[in-house]
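Q: Study each token:
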Amino acid sequence: MAPSPSPTQSSETRFTITIVECGDVLLQSRKLQEQDTAVELLVASQILSITSPVFKAMFQRGLAEGQGLSAATLKEVPLPVGDATLVTILCNVFHMASHALPTKMDPKSLADFAVLCDKYDCKDAVELTARVWCIGIIPDLTVSVEGLATVLFTTWVLDLPKEFHQVNRTLLRDRTGTIPAKVAAHSSDSFPWKLSIVRNRITDLTPMK
């Protein structure tokens, strides 16, 4: 459903997006590029609890945001991490709102989405959708070496072995050039990989065990 703006006493702009009509929780997030824009997502806590143990723990703990959840009395739950746009996509995946999902994503946004999924421990719930997005990028000849390396990071984070090897094969077979480690690891220090380059050609790119 299209977002509806709500006036506030400050200069902040607030949008409410209904992910599901029978929702009982308003997730509050912000757009990272527009800190004066707040987004509230009407979601079903039961669905989030099933798909993400992080959300389940949030709703089950004896914290104010997790008490007395019901559609009659909406609870506002501020999210400490996550860009509002990506959180909206994640919630649409959770609620099987495929009509509201983008048909494709660019490498950086997809990597950011993967990091968000990792934070909320919901890789299984997004696997099929993420695979579609990855498959849409891998054969695209206009995607740079750096972009493919970012997709490689995504497939590793989301545990997509088939797509990981497809990207790996494409890099080794069809592309030349160097890949800055910071780019390939999406500014993360947790990507355990090894990269061998001979004469500016990628010769080996595999995860370290």
About this structure: DSSP finds eight helices and seven strands in the chain. The chain has two domains: 1-92, 102-209.
